[in-house]
Structures are given as structure tokens and as C-alpha cells.
Amino acid sequence: MTLEFEYSTLAHPPDIQQLAVIFKQCFVNALGGEEAYMNQIGVENFRIIRESQQLIGGLATLNMGQWWGGERLPMTGIAVVAIAPEYRGSGGAIALMQHTLKELYARGVPLSALYPAVQTLYRKVGYEQGGSWYIWEVATNAIGVREQPLPLQPVVPINHQVFHELYQQQAKLTHGYLDRHPAIWRRLIEPDENEQVYAYLIGTKDKPEGYIIFAQQRTHNGEIIFVKDWVLKTAAATQTFWSLLATHRSQIQQVRWKSSAIDTLTLALPEQTAKISTQFRWMLRIVDVVKALSMRGYPSGIETELHLEIQDNVIDANNGKFILSVANGRGEVTKGGKGELQLDVRELAPLYTSLFSPYHLQIAGKLHGTETAISAATQIFAASSPWVADFF
């Protein structure tokens, strides 16, 4: 029997309460108060799915931006996808995601990203691994950086507007970084239970060269500092960052921070004492092929074209042949061409983000292309490894 699903926005108080109950069961209170979380995101940004007029699940949409090749593209993050246990396996989650993607396409949003609980569901609707989210750690007594070349300015009370411009400067230069949703900023500066958050500008007040926001936490493995956010624009700022953390070595055992799989901060340490403690890959969905390819930035020194043939089982307009012409760091997309690089819209995601090279995607069976097309794609999508500092 094929079930009939109804997709809509969240508006009515009984629906809000029912969705909060589903969230609570699905996420085991991980949201820290379901209705408070919903108010923080904005009730109007939730989408729900019904079967036979019964609300069976929902999700949150976070409208923000993401930086690719030095250009900001509109991106909608998908969070807290939840289906009531008795309706799991009914097709409700896929229907919810399909409707959401079609809505995003109609609104002109080129990209969507999410952190999957399981990849299988999201791959069915065109998401694929897009970049990394890593947590590193090092023992404070192994940092070994003593000199502090720049002054530190405590920020009290903590207001994210103080850090916003510095963050945006780093985000523009970091492949995959978010133009953050306000709720993400709030989670960075507001303390959890049993923790205190501290923030410092690095450098002078009129010309800061970075910042650090961190919390001190007591765990069963001892005391740690968790760096919730950081921006470092200069070598002096990086050294000051490490020297500040090293001063805590008599009370704090470990420092943890978020960074990329290849972390340049560790180059400033005297030894290879930092290790990855947590690794995860978020997923990206190319919602609008033409907009996604034409709006991002590309390497400035190349002039070439790539003939694509794309399949998309959700958004019909993404199907077919496209020519991506790249020159002077910009891309232009026209329909037609030879279709020399053939792939599903799902596999376009890790190519687009530069997570994997065209060669490696081909030997993994994720795309098929002529030697000319593989060469052109390699030039076009050459970039640093993509990563995001924020979990949502």
C-alpha cells in the first residue's frame, strides 16, 4: 500500500507540541529543550509531514550561506530530521526531504548541507559527502609555545557582533565555511550547563588579528579546554593563541579545537603531539545545478570548459547536459554540449567541494568521463580540502 503524505510549514500550537514530542523521543533530550530550540531557530523555519492527517515528523531549515572559491552562495542547512518511530520505514522521511528540496529549488537556493545520522536516506535524495568536521586535541603540557607576541583583550560580556567581521574575513578564505545562522552564533557564545565561556580578542582593540572563544569543562578524563571558535589571521596571532592555551597547563590536561583534516595550527607546535579525537563528514546537495556552478569562485589562472551530463531523481531541471565555461575565476553555465563527464547529482557534490579529485571519484565508480573531461574537471575543482567549523 502506498501512503499519501502531506507536506507543510509548522504554524499551529498543537502541531508545535506534537513535533516537540517527536524531537524529544528521537534525540533523547539532546536539543536541550525542544520548544526552546524551535523558538531559537524560528517556528516558521520548520517543515512537517503528515500521513492521514497525523503529524509524523519534521525538520528544521537554517537559511544561511557557504563560501566556495571565495564567493558566498546561499545555502540551507537541514537539521533535526525526525520521524516518529511507528512511522519509520513508511517512506515519510524520503517524502519530507524530497518536498523540502523542491521547495528550496523553487526559492532559488543553490545548495543544501546536513550532518547525517545515517547516509543511506540522504543519498537517496541526492546528498553526498561534501567536507569534514574534525576535532583535534593536544595535552597542554605538550604545546610548548611560551612567547606571546600580541596582547589579549578579554571580551565581557560576550557578543558575537564583536567577532563577526573577523570571522567573515577568515570564512571567505576557507573553502566550505559557513556564513553562520544566528542560532549557530548563539550556541557558540552561550554556555552549556556547568561551564563558563571565555572570549579574547588577539591583538590591539583597534586592530585585532584574531580571537578565541573557549569553555573550561570537567570530564571523567580530567579538565579540558574546548575551543568553541577561533580566527587567526597572522603568524603572531597563531603563536599568541597557543601561548594562551599553554598557560593553563597546571590546571588543564587537554585542549580540543575544531579544524580541518589537515590542520595548519599544528605546524606551530614543536612536535607532532596533536591528534584527531573526532572525525565526521557532512553532506552537501546541489539543489540548483546551474546556480551552484555559476555562482561559486574558481582558480583564476585557468580558462577551460567542462561538458557535463547529470542525472537527478528529485529535481527535473537538473537533468541533462550542461557546459561549464571557466575563465578569470568565474563560471558560466549553458545547456547542451557533449556530456563527456557523466554523473549523478549526488556525485557532483564531492567534486564541487573538492573533497575528492575527479580521478579518485572515477576509480570509485562515482563518475565516468573522457580523459579530456577528467583533466578539465581536475583544473576547475582544484582547491584546499573543504571543512566546516560548525555542527548544526
Give an overview in words.
This protein is of the alpha+beta class and 392 residues long. It has helices spanning 13-27, 34-41, 92-106, 119-124, 161-172, 182-189, 235-246, 289-295, 345-353, 358-363, 371-380, and strands at residues 5-9, 46-51, 54-68, 71-83, 111-114, 128-139, 152-154, 178-179, 196-203, 208-219, 222-232, 254-259, 275-286, 304-311, 320-327, 330-335, 341-344, 367-369. It is 28% helix and 35% strand. The mean pLDDT is 95. The chain contains 11 helices and 18 strands. It is globular. Strands 1, 2, 3, 4, 5, 6, 7, 8, 9, 10, 11, 12 and 13 form a 13-stranded mixed sheet that branches. Strands 16-15-14-17-18 form a 5-stranded mixed sheet. The protein folds into 3 domains: 5-126, Gcn5-related N-acetyltransferase (GNAT) (Aminopeptidase, 3-Layer(aba) Sandwich); 134-281, Gcn5-related N-acetyltransferase (GNAT) (Aminopeptidase, 3-Layer(aba) Sandwich), CATH 3.40.630.30; 288-380, Nonspecific Lipid-transfer Protein, Chain A, CATH 3.30.1050.10.
Please give a handful of descriptors for the protein shown:
single chain; 392 residues; alpha+beta; Aminopeptidase; Nonspecific Lipid-transfer Protein, Chain A; 3 domains; 11 helices; 28% helix; globular; GNAT_dom; GNAT family N-acetyltransferase; SCP2_sterol-bd_dom_sf
Summarize this structure briefly:
This protein is an alpha+beta fold and about 400 residues long. About 30% of the residues lie in helices and about 35% in strands.
Total tally of structural domains: 3
Structural class: alpha+beta
Please name the CATH topology of the largest domain.
Aminopeptidase
* Beta-strand fraction estimate: 35-45%
**Whole-Å distance between the termini?**
35 Å
- Please state the average pLDDT score: 95
Largest sheet: 13 strands, mixed
- Second-tier CATH architecture of the largest domain: 3-Layer(aba) Sandwich
Oligomer type: single chain
SS summary, helix count: 11
